[in-house]
Amino acid sequence: MAKQITKPQKQLSFVVDLNKCIGCQTCTVACKKLWTNQRGEDPIYWRNVETRPGKGYPRNWENEGGGFNAAGEVQRGRMPTAGDYGVPFEFDYEARLFEGVPGRVRPRPAATTAGFASWAPNFDEDQGEGTYPNNYYFYLPRHCNHCSKPACLEACPNDAIYKRAADGIVLVDQTKCKAARNCVQACPYDKTYFNTAIQKASKCIGCYPRIEKGVATACVAQCVGRAMHVGFMEDTASSVHKLAKVWKVALPLYAARGTEPNMFYIPPVLGPTMEDAQGNLRTDKKIPIEYLVKLFGNDVPRVMKVLEEERGKRLMSEPSELMDIMIGRRSADMMLNPLT
Amino acid sequence: MSKTTRRDLLRLGGAAYLGTLFSGPFALKALAQAPAASPQMQHDYAGWEQLYRDKWSWDTKTRGAHLINCTGACPHWVYTKNGIVVREEASKDMPSLAGVPEYNPRGCNKGACGTDYLYGPHRVKYPLIRTGARGEGKWRRASWDEALGIIADKMLDTIRDHAVDCISVYTPVPAVAPVSFSAGHRFAHLIGAHTHTFFDWYGDHPTGQTQTCGVQGDTAETADWFNAKLILLWGSSPAVTRIPDAHFINEAALNGSRVVSIAPDYNATTIKADTWIHPKPGTDTALALGMAHVLMRDKLVDVANVKEQTDLPYLIRTDTKKFLREADVVQGGSAAKFYVWDTKTKKPVLAKGCWGEEPPGGRPAVQPAYLGRNTLTFPDGTIALGDLDPALEGSFKVTLKDGKSVDVKPAYALYAERIMRDYTPKKVSEITGVAEKAIVDLAKSYGTVKPAMIISGGGTNHWYWSDIEIRAFHLLSSLTGNEGKNGGGVNHYIGQWKPVAVPGVLALSFPQGAARHRFTQTTIWTYVHADAYDAMETVGIDTRKYLRASLDQKMMPIYPREGRDPKVFIVYRGNFLNQAKGQKYVLQNLWPKLDLIVNLNLRMDSMALYSDIVLPAAHWYEKLDLQMTEEHTFVHMTEPAIPPMHESKHDWDVFTLLAKKMQDRAVARGMSRVFDEQFNVSRDFSTLYAQQTDNGKLESAAQAAQFILDNAPATKGITLDMIRERPQRFKANWTSPIKDGVPYTPFQFYTDSKKPWPTLTGRQQFYIDHDWFIEMGVELPVYKAPVDADAFPLRFNTPHSRHAIHSTFKDNVLMLRLQRGGPVLEMPPGEAKTRGLRDNDWAEVWNDHGRMICRVKIHNREPEGRVTMCHTPELYMDLIEGSTQSVCPIRINPTSLVGNYGHLLFRPNYYGPGGTQRDARVQVRRYTGLIPS
């Protein structure tokens, strides 16, 4: 029997505009420096940005199962290995710089051409697919979707995971977690983690201490690409509501996994076209629509059409409310209060 | 960075995970035991959740900035709890400009982990004196007193045994930390040591813009990108190198601007452009001139602008290729006044505002360091044409003062002839590899969409002939009337050169006046003192011949003078050795000449590692300083979140202490007064401390910062308290006024107010009739192929990195974990395959200048024929041998050695030879030697 989840009064929601994410990793660092910098947390990035197409973080997460099956049963996915997360490089700078130990400062574990150490978060940065000059890639920022139907919550045998009534944030109660790790296996996005040093599961906390004070999450507040929106979906004045519910241009990632994510993506409509063997530009975009459909579902073609039409208006100097929302001239229009 | 213990690692990699590799539905047994009721209601919000609330808390919040060679100038808050700096966050309180997206949040991945250098393993904690060989990393701890005593005594020895100009002080980039910058300059100034240029040496100086516009460099603030309707990103990838500003490109695109990216690689900014044009590396000038061809052919030229704003109507003598000068025509005429041909009167007429023309009231006393000359006292409208209609085409006869007749042509006619002949779309397509139609479409688009902006970067500015590239960009911008327009113009973003409040910095650095200071030009300094080999004879250019002439004729300076060697080298705020092109020669030839190398540094970088004495500097969050940039028009600050840790000190305090120590030692050794022959002054070392601190008025960094603000038009009236409250907008700027709420864009004093441009001709100057330009065939900006002086098959490309600012953050653990743990050579699949290289293999990279052994990352965004490595990993990083600069020579272009030619003259960082490493070629093969464990 599935657990019952009371619908929260408000749902904290995110929109990521892939037309604006520049892959700079500022959000990754902002999150890491604020939250996951304690013992055992080095391999854990609640927030990460991955190059797509690519293997992602943890490696091959999207092929590892989890989520709900057609019958609504929560699925046990494969547990990523330490190598899939990337064993964090360590560097002995003191020895080389201050103690006269010769040689270079090598990362430990050193990457090898084979074996689990040849991986790290962002290891395939900017690689993508295709052959020059028709290769392509883009960036996909990810953190916990704070799903309306969280597989992690469903799978936890100890009821350590709950969804807050006030804001819909999904949390792992650190006092109740008994290290079952079902959550890690159940999350189809591999966005719950297990800290082996302290034997606790952890995940993005939606920056609830900030949200409680009306302040935007650390990743959004410091998104220097200005690519993120955060707000409550029930707030009809919020940009997340307008983008996801009114304009319907923001789509969840792998919606078929059945968890009802509350993080939505505006697919990349900006970008060059392919070229023929003589170097003449064609009209088709470099990122194949099939690939975007795979990530964001069958609604992608409709959304791309809306985006192209609305940008087309601006190209003709006509007004477009949608483009204005996506531009977000003032940060305060894209998020809760950005100021700390 | 938290430490993962070895045991944790084993668990992570081992048994803890092995039992769970199957998939399928969960066994419902465990779940069945769970209560079906809403579990979230059972949690006490005031209970365990307090854990993370406590984590997001702090005792104090202070202003922070990252005082490194970065253009971002991003205001941050720094949070401190229990005396520990816990983290930083972009302050997000930059004031907004009208109609454009705001600058907030402003920061990047590096700025967000600035605390790492505060507490990290690189931190220099105490004065250290070398006990092993240079670079070995063996030290003994010393007291400040001992270290400063050794330094002071060695300087006095040098003055006694050699000359004061054998003391060299290197510190770059005033904009990011003007107080710290000024500290060492003021000290050097007072004792007579020489200091260095850096903007040119780093390869960031837009030499072609100085040649064309008479300005050290000026650009629009980045918010103005949003105003462009067409953006040409030309060798520039803001998503990587201008992270805080890249959003304006994408926002402009969403707002209906077209974005074209011109770059050989499919870079992180290009992926969002409408059009990608990928010329062969180094052929960009040909592409620009192909566009000029189409603009001229299709009559898309803004003729009125060309006639008024440029020297293209100026008459050129066909016999000498020189301008027709007043001195040619009139007895006693000026050699710096020039003619145009008036189509109405059919006579040559002197153009207004030329170098030889004095403004009403005579030459102004104030000469901005960043302009060829001060033309701001000319009345508005000086260069307006009025009834004059200068010819652009045709050939005319003029009678010279000796009665001879000479044929003259407008520069435009000469240039158009060549452009129409040499740069047809077909020819340009052959040179660049860009399809003809793409060239024509680009040109037509550039000629019709207004305003259109060219944004250039390191991709076009690091070549031997990069000066011509920018001259050609300005040509395009002028032909289409885009100069001086919001959303238009040519904007180069490379280097952090713009301490907007420059008069304040100069006043603090050079209390006796800049004329009484020894500036050396660093590219020349390094080339000469490191006896660097450039292989240029293989392409028929004798660099040393031009260099000798330039130095002999005092066009460019070098110190020490009279063939002496530098003896004492004091470096701070700059990783000189690590960044030095011709690094092998610097280590082999220059380093042994130096009796004492001192480095003041917060971290043990490569420069510190190869020094004799290392002094601990305060971290950016432990000190007070200002920060400015060209990317936006606000001054902001950093202030101590905590006092300097260990024994570190603010740079300002270090140099006041050094002045005190030098004074004490000089008095004790009977060297209180030292006569300086070059300036014919007696330097009083017995009052050095009083001079350094202006009798105590500049004792603290805060006093020095306020002094800078008070002494510059851009910041006069702004106080530290005001900046502490919020970043403050400049009140004035370099070549355009600051208008309320409007993004700054340069050159409006000339395009709008129509004062003369600060060049020899008083216009944007495309024709340069200096002998050396004519000799090199570049009196007009024509295409010159990359210099292939290295007979090796692969172009070696060394761009900036997303995860570092030059060498800073290159060794940051968090940044390395988001890469591959060390530097990589990005290689296209084909080049790797033919060499049997697989991803992550070790490879040997070499040419005649040096060798590097590094890892390979196979990258399909790279064109065949080229390999790329983000520049300058530290010399102790994960390479088996060498670094990028091991294979990059110092190459000096003779045209950048020109001086005493109107606006082409030496002033520090205003004009001089720069870095040209993108022409370098290398070979790559599999490394088969021993891989150290």
TrEMBL record, chain A:
Could you tell me the keywords of this UniProt record?
3Fe-4S, 4Fe-4S, Electron transport, Iron, Iron-sulfur, Metal-binding, Repeat, Transport
Q: Record's GO cellular component, any one? A: periplasmic space
- Biological processes per GO annotation: anaerobic respiration
Q: Which SUPFAM superfamilies match?
A: 4Fe-4S ferredoxins
- Source taxon at top rank: Bacteria
Tell me the InterPro entries matching this sequence: 4Fe4S_Fe-S-bd (IPR017896), DMSO_Rdtase_II_Fe-S_su (IPR017839)
Keyword Transport present in the record's keywords: the answer is yes
Location within or outside the cell: Cell envelope
What cofactors does this protein use? [3Fe-4S] cluster; [4Fe-4S] cluster
Q: Which Pfam families match?
A: Fer4_11
**Where does the record place the 4Fe-4S ferredoxin-type domain?**
12-41, 135-166, 168-197
Name the Gene Ontology molecular function terms of this record. Answer: 3 iron, 4 sulfur cluster binding; 4 iron, 4 sulfur cluster binding; electron transfer activity; metal ion binding
| Protein name (record) | Respiratory nitrate reductase subunit beta
Write down the species.
Rhodoplanes elegans
TrEMBL record, chain B:
4Fe-4S Mo/W bis-MGD-type domain span: 59-122
Name its cellular compartments: Cell envelope
GO CC terms of this entry: cell envelope; membrane; oxidoreductase complex
**What Pfam families does this protein map onto?**
Molybdopterin, Molydop_binding
Q: What GO terms are given for molecular function? A: 4 iron, 4 sulfur cluster binding; metal ion binding; molybdopterin cofactor binding; oxidoreductase activity
Can you tell me which residues the record assigns to a coiled coil? none
For this protein, the record's PROSITE patterns field holds:
4FE4S_MOW_BIS_MGD, TAT
Might you name a Gene Ontology BP term for this protein?
cellular respiration
| CDD domains, A to Z | MopB_Nitrate-R-NarG-like (cd02750)
Source organism superkingdom:
Bacteria
Cofactor(s) it depends on: [4Fe-4S] cluster; Mo-bis(molybdopterin guanine dinucleotide)
Q: Report keywords, A-Z.
A: 4Fe-4S, Iron, Iron-sulfur, Metal-binding, Molybdenum, Oxidoreductase, Signal
Record has Isomerase as a keyword: no
Q: Which SUPFAM superfamilies match?
A: ADC-like, Formate dehydrogenase/DMSO reductase, domains 1-3
The family note in this entry says: Belongs to the prokaryotic molybdopterin-containing oxidoreductase family.
This chain belongs to which protein, by name? Molybdopterin oxidoreductase
**What organism is listed for this UniProt entry?**
Rhodoplanes elegans
